[in-house]
Every structure is written in C-alpha cells, then in structure tokens.
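Q: Convert this sequence to structure tokens.
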Amino acid sequence: MTAHRKDDHVRLAHAQHTSEGEPPPPVGPPRPNQFDEVRFVHHALAGTDREKVSLATHFAGVDWPVPLYINAMTGGSPRTGEINRDLAVAARQTGLPIATGSMSPYLKDPDTASTFTPVRREHPDGFVLANLNAEATPEQARRAVGLLDADALQIHINTVQETVMPEGDRSFAHWAAGIERIAAAVDVPVVVKEVGFGLSGRTVRELASLGVRAADVAGSGGTDFARIENGRRDRPDYAYLEGWGLSTPAALLDARDCGLPLLASGGVRNPLDVARALALGARAVGASGPFLTTLLDGGVDALVRHITTWLDHLTSLMTLLGAHSPDALADCDVLLTGSLRAFRLDRGLTTTAEKGVTS
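A:
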C-alpha cells in the first residue's frame, strides 16, 4: 500500500509539472506564481566581476558550496529507489546537498531501506538530509539518520496533505512536542519544512523554541500536495483546498527575523526565483518538481545539465547585481508588487531601507 502511494505521488507530481504542455525546464516559460511579484531594481553600475562571486553559503553551523539543494521527494518502492539513486548521482556531479523523501516506509518495513541508501552510496562525500514526519519517535529519528549517515534531519509537517490524504493522520496536537523530543535526541541539525503550504512567522518562532536549527518555509506555487491527494480519492472532495497556504515569497517575508535561518522551496522555477528567494532572506533554496520532471523526461545527464545551468545563471545574476555572496543578495533593492505587496501591508510587515525591500 505504501509503495503504491509513493509511486502515485511521483506520477501525480510529474503530471502537475507537465499538464500545461510547457517544454522541459529551463526552456519553457514558467507558470505564474508569486515570485513574479518580486522584482530587482536595476542599478546599471552595480555589477561586479564574475571571479569575485562565490556561491558558498553558511547557516546553523552548516557550510554548503552552493545555495541550491535537491529537496525531499520520494522513496519506499523499487521505482522510487531508482529515482533516489539518479537524483544522488546528479547531486554528486554538481555538488548539491540532497534530501531524501520521507523515510517512514523504512520505519514500517526495513526491507525498503534499499530505496533510500542509494542517496548516500551515490553521494558519499555530499551533504545528505534524512527526512521524517513529526510522528517519528526519537529512536526512529536516530535510525533514519544512522541508515544514511545523514548530515542533518529534515522533519516535514504537512497537516493539509494529511487532511486530504484518504489514509492520512487526523491528530496533530502532539506534533510540536514530538519535534522537540527529536531535536533533543539526534546529534545532527534538525531542519523543519512544510510540503508546499508555507511556514508563517508564528510557526518559525515556535520551531525556534523547540530546538530546531533551521526552517524551510516550503510555500505554495509549485507541487500542490492537496491536489495530489485529491487525485488519489474516489471523489475529489477537497478540491477547494488546492492552492491553500502561503507562497514561498510570502512565507519568507512573514518569517524573516523570527529566530531561525530560513531555507526556501516551493514554486522555484528558475535561477531568477533562486535569486529572489535569497534576496528575501533565504540562506539556500531547494527545488523538487523541476528537477524530478527533468530527470523523468531526460535522465541523469539532462538533470546534471539543468542544475549546472541554474548554478551558472545564478552566478551571472549575482554578478550583474553586484552580490559577491548569496547573503549579499539580501542587500539588493527589491520591489514587491501586486498581491505580495498587499500581503506585506495586511500583515503589518515593516519596510526598512536596510533590508533593501520596498513596496
């Protein structure tokens, strides 16, 4: 049952990213989302020299060579094990950190370990994040980290997905206490992420109090798990929840200065979106849907070319903006427009010149 569900997730996620007939990224025009309402102010003499630009980033005691990572996707079935292997090969060849999909199948059935272990085997010297949900016990968290010799543990929180999932959880009140217990029990940094519905500032402040080291705001605009789970139901009873949540740019604005380093994922379509997220305060940016689509449509070599192109273009964007590091993008002048500007005003979020963001 679990293996079938994981294969369904891959199939339906791939369908979301190809259903409108766009060419494989980065060729086709991106589908609109709230990243389009974040615009850099062009200063014609702001540029720097490309050789002075470094993509290295640092947060929560972690050093990454690039501010881009392959975010959690899958695992638990033979097919998803092959996908994890190929993602890890691409990560090794491009130097990207990589997160596994939820390792809950392994905790239920140790025979599925082989669908996750290729991530470490194929990326032996890279940064690997194991992934669990907030239902896991501290002992299970240690098992997951140990299986992969993981450098960090990613805990996903997904109340919306669980609500729509036919066989999903219906009890969420104990999740915060569970996260706190896990954070105290493992010897690696704990990163908490949403699965595409966004983390608010209030949530990030609470996570900081639980011992979490970083938060991936993982907002809407990309793969929609409400839509995926609705597609698995006999009747699409929860269609009204599709599109629920905070977009990634909105979540970054809401959670800025809330006590944790922020990572960003969800709706990241191209290198410009990576730069936009970094300018809004993210320390690194993750992608899943675009990378999965390229892998399934073109194979590992196509994914390596895709990632390499993103890193090359991000370096070019930083060069023209005069940002010598990912952190320096947060000092660039950015304009917010449309519904994102309205969100900022409605939430009473401060506009300050030193943050480089204005409405």
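The chain has one domain: 2-24+31-358.
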